[in-house]
Design a protein that fits this description.
Order of helices and strands: HHHHHHHHHHHHHHH
Shape: globular
Largest sheet: none
C-alpha cells in the first residue's frame, strides 16, 4: 500500500489515474477516496478538488444508473474531512466532520434514492429479518420484528458512508506519515480524545436519535463514530504505554468484531474525556497534543 501512495504522489496524472479507475468500481471506490484524501492532505484542497471533479464522473454515472449516491458522498466526504484535518490540524475535529458527511449521505438517499432503498429493503433487510423471525419461531417465540422504513435504511447507508470516509481519511493519514513523517500517524491516533463538553453533546445526540426507535437508531450511529475511534485511540495508547506487541492488538480487534464491545469503546472515550487517562502516565505536557506534519505548504507537481 505504501508503494501505491508513492506512485500517487509522483504527480497529478498518477493520482488522477488511480482516483478515476477506483471511483468507477464499487469494490475499490474506497481506494479512490483515500487517494483523494492523501492528495488533499499533502498538496492542498485546490489540488484535491481538481482530481475530485474527474473522479466524480464515474461515481455520478453509478448514482444515475443504480440510484446509489453513496460513492459520490464517499469521495466528496473524504476530501472534506482531509481539508478539515489540514486546516485545523486536529484529527478529533476531522472525525466530528464525519457527522455532516453521514447526514448528507442519508439525506441524498432519501431525496433521490427511493428505488435503491426499496431494493435494499427487498433484497437484504427483509430476508434477514425473516430469517431472524424463523430462528425465534424455532425457539418457541412469536415475536414479530419491527420493519425499518426508508428513513431508517437511509440512516444506515449514511452512517456506513460516514464510517468509510473516516477509514479512508485514516488510511490517507497513515500513508502521509509513512512517506513524510514515519511514526507520526501512530502518535497522532494515540492522542485522539474529546473534551467532556463535546462528549456530552454527542451522547445527547445519540440518546435523542435513539429515542425515535427504529427510524432514529440507525442515525444515532453517526454520534457513536467519533467516540468509538477516540476509544480505540485510547486502547492504542495503553498498548503503546505498556509495550504490548502487535499480536495483542490483533487479538483485541478480532474480539471487538466478534463480541459486543462497541459500546465499551464509547464508554472508554467518555471516561477519558473526564479523566484524561494519558496524562496519568505521560505527564501534563502531552495533554491535548496532536502530532502533525510540520510542512503544510502545497507541493509542485512532479
Amino acid at each position: 500500500m505504501k508503494g501505491l501512495a508513492e506512485f500517487v504522489m509522483r504527480g497529478r496524472w498518477q493520482a488522477l489515474l488511480v482516483a478515476v479507475v477506483g471511483a468507477g468500481s464499487v469494490l475499490f471506490c474506497w481506494l479512490s477516496a483515500a487517494v483523494l484524501a492523501l492528495v488533499t492532505l499533502r498538496k492542498g484542497s485546490a489540488e484535491g478538488a481538481k482530481i475530485l471533479l474527474w473522479a466524480l464522473l464515474p461515481a455520478l454515472l453509478i448514482a444515475w444508473q443504480a440510484g446509489d449516491s453513496s460513492a459520490v458522498v464517499l469521495l466528496t466526504g473524504s476530501v472534506v474531512l482531509a481539508w478539515v484535518l489540514r486546516a485545523t490540524v486536529s484529527l478529533p475535529m476531522a472525525l466530528l466532520a464525519s457527522l455532516g458527511v453521514g447526514l448528507a449521505g442519508g439525506g441524498l438517499m432519501l431525496a433521490f434514492g427511493q428505488t435503491f432503498l426499496e431494493m435494499v429493503n427487498a433484497e437484504f433487510v427483509e430476508p434477514y429479518l425473516a430469517l431472524r423471525e424463523q430462528a425465534l419461531a424455532e425457539q418457541g417465540s412469536t415475536v414479530t420484528l419491527p420493519r425499518p422504513g426508508p428513513v431508517a435504511i437511509a440512516g444506515a447507508v449514511g452512517s456506513g458512508t460516514a464510517l468509510m470516509t473516516v477509514l479512508c481519511l485514516l488510511l490517507a493519514r497513515y500513508w502521509q506519515a509513512a512517506l513524510y513523517n514515519p511514526g507520526g500517524f501512530g502518535e497522532e491516533f494515540r492522542e485522539l480524545r474529546y473534551p467532556i463538553s463535546v462528549s456530552l453533546v454527542l451522547v445527547v445526540v445519540i440518546l435523542g436519535a435513539s429515542s425515535l426507535h427504529v427510524a432514529g437508531s440507525t442515525w444515532a450511529i453517526l454520534g457513536l463514530l467519533p467516540l468509538t475511534f477516540a476509544g480505540l485511540g485510547l486502547v492504542h495508547a495503553v498498548a503503546h504505554h505498556r509495550g504490548w506487541r502487535t499480536t495483542a492488538l490483533a487479538i483485541f480487534y478480532a474480539s471487538w468484531v466478534v463480541l459486543p464491545m462497541q459500546l465499551l469503546m464509547v464508554g472508554l472515550a467518555i471516561a477519558d474525556s473526564w479523566l484524561n487517562i494519558r496524562e496519568r502516565w505521560a505527564g501534563p505536557q502531552r495533554n491535548g497534543k496532536q502530532v502533525n506534519e510540520p510542512e503544510k505548504q502545497d507541493e509542485k507537481d512532479s
